[in-house]
Specification:
Elements lengths: L2 E5 L7 H10 L4 E7 L2 E8 L2 H9 L6 E5 L15 E2 L9 E4 L3 E5 L12 H8 L6 H9 L5 E6 L3 E5 L2 E4 L2 E3 L43 E2 L1
Antiparallel strand pairs: 1-4, 1-11, 2-3, 2-4, 3-6, 5-7, 7-8, 8-9, 10-11, 10-12
Length: 216
């Protein structure tokens, strides 16, 4: 169970929140953001310190962040999200592209192996070969998962049911002991309350502005 977090422009993710999410999704992280007509990404962040240092540089930007909890594929830098949908097997850790870029929270069968994650194979073998609009329709049909698909054409599209939680849009809140019934040994409850909700091009129905309200 990975997690995707959307950081609005001109905001910072509180360090305690970042740490709590990392502790429950410790297998690496990556992020993407838009600059004019390109998608920029950084991935292969295998420590909380590395992730925090990269996010600090992007305070002014609207950023999608992925925290990995590995279910398929090796735990290494290459299998961290996001994945560029260009059909290539080599994953660069810093990249600027006009191709589609994918983040995923969930599992997609029958993809995945002991070496490659299901998300990596979905991006490489399927999404690389279809248009942006077709990719969105395909991902919408996988309603047990949540996705971010980004490109210059569509911007940052959130697909699946996300929630507004503590001032951010997230694919789940399982990491948070204040709302989720998880072993307390794994997570510390936090009390921060952060303002600011990003405005995205929404795919599907609009969302309720109440905290922890699901939308898609």
């Amino acid at each position: 169970m990975c997690l995707i977090l959307i950081k609005p422009e001109n905001t910072s993710v509180p360090y305690k929140m970042l740490r709590d999410i990392w502790d429950s999704n410790p297998d690496g992280a990556g992020m993407l953001w838009l600059v004019k007509d390109k998608v920029k990404l950084v991935k292969g962040l295998m420590t909380l310190k590395d992730l925090h240092n990269e996010l600090v540089k992007l305070k002014e930007m609207e950023v999608a962040v992925h925290f990995r909890y590995a279910t398929h594929g090796a735990v290494n830098r290459a299998m961290t999200h996001p994945f560029v949908c260009n059909g290539l097997t080599e994953e660069k850790l810093r990249f600027t592209t006009q191709h589609k870029v994918l983040m995923h929270n969930g599992t997609v069968k029958p993809f995945g192996s002991s070496v490659e994650s299901d998300s990596f194979q979905l991006a490489k073998d399927v999404l690389s070969h279809v248009s942006d609009s077709s990719a969105i329709k395909l991902l919408e049909a996988l309603d047990s998962s949540k996705f971010v698909l980004a490109s210059p054409e569509i911007g940052i599209a959130l697909i699946g049911k996300f929630i507004k939680h503590r001032g951010f849009l997230m694919s789940n809140n399982y990491w948070d002991m204040t709302t989720a019934k998880l072993p307390k040994a794994y997570y510390d409850a936090h009390l921060e309350d952060d303002a600011g909700i990003p405005q995205f091009k929404l795919w599907g129905s609009s969302f309720d502005d109440g905290d922890d309200t699901e939308w898609n």
